[in-house]
Amino acid sequence: PLMWPHLEELCRNHPDVAFMVYTNGTLIDENAAGWMRSSGNISPAISIEGWREATDDRRGKGVFDKIIRGMDNLKTAGVPFGFSVTVTRDNCEEISSDEFIDFLIAKGAFYGWSFHYIPIGRNPDFSMRITPEQRADLVYRIREIRKTKPIQVADFWNDGQLTGGCIAGGRRYFHITANGNVEPCAFVHFTVDTIYGKSLREILANPLFAAYQKRQPFSDNLLRPCPLIDVPGQLREIVAESGAQPTHPGADDILYGETASKMDEAAQDWKKEADRIWTGIEGKLAREKSRV
Predict the structure, then answer these.
(1) Which of 48, 62, 81, 88 is at 20 to 30 A from 71, Cα to Cα?
(2) Which residues contact 221 (CB under 8 A, 6 or more apart)?
(3) How many structural domains comprise the chain?
(4) Distance of CA 55 to the CA centre of its chain
């Protein structure tokens, strides 16, 4: 987003709006940090994959050091920022370790977002998905970080109890692509509508969102909130019922054939772990909701 020449102007023209931008942080020099401080309504969430080796392996040699320079510039300027991690089978323990979280806190991060790797698009790589056991460990680990460290972290798939399940499909959130397609979620690449020629009220009433909302929260176990990876059969029903179309080639691979079978198998594997955890901590999680 920092390559877009109008970002500063957008923020300054809308002082009553708070902007959070996901960025690799490599373009956050002293000048960028300065205008963000002056604008006062933008907070970068900086993508990082773990320590230098993990980050550079995925994002390119030298990117980790550029990210750290960006964080230092933001901290010096007094700009609140966070971090964003894509959790994979290889980095799951690393990104949730005390050492890594403490490092980011020392760098100045106020918050962090945890996104599990989702095998969507063309030729999805299921070997990168975290295992059910790793996801179960994260349920407890994220809560421990929140309770013991001066940072707010959230896991988009393991924190369903904080939001009453899935928030997508216009219930609390939806996604707009660069070309104006309206998707229920940034990870669910189907649409029946665009932003052009319609009001927000009309968009929120579209049949795709209606099909979503009448099924939410998708599961009584709020550790299984997602119709994409936790209850994939429901996403197939939603797409069929609403007549939604994929927003790019390959987006509908998750609905059919081998990919769909793998999604179902992974969902069932997680269900076993999720049900075991939910039975034991459901009451505790409900109480935690009121404190976070």
Answers:
(1) 88
(2) 271, 274, 275, 278
(3) 2
(4) 18
Q: For the residues of 41-95, what is the DSSP string, one character each?
A: -EEEEEE--SSHHHHHHHH-TTHHHHHHHHHHHHHHHT--EEEEEEE-TTTHHHH
Q: Which two tokens stand for residue 202?
A: 């009309």
Nearest to 8 by CA among 29, 34, 30: 34
Residue count of the chain? 292
Are 58 and 95 within 8 A, CB to CB?
no
Question: What's the pLDDT score for residue 124?
Answer: 81
Q: Looking at the domain assignment, is residue 160 inside a domain?
A: no
Domain that holds residue 46: 7-155
Give the per-residue pLDDT at 292.
47
Alpha carbon 251 to its chain centroid, in Å, reads 18
- What is the average per-residue pLDDT within 230-238? 98
Compute φ and ψ for 4, nearest 5 degrees: -75, 120
The CA-atom distances, in angstroms, between 1 and each of 10, 16, 25, 39, 241 are 12, 20, 10, 16, 35
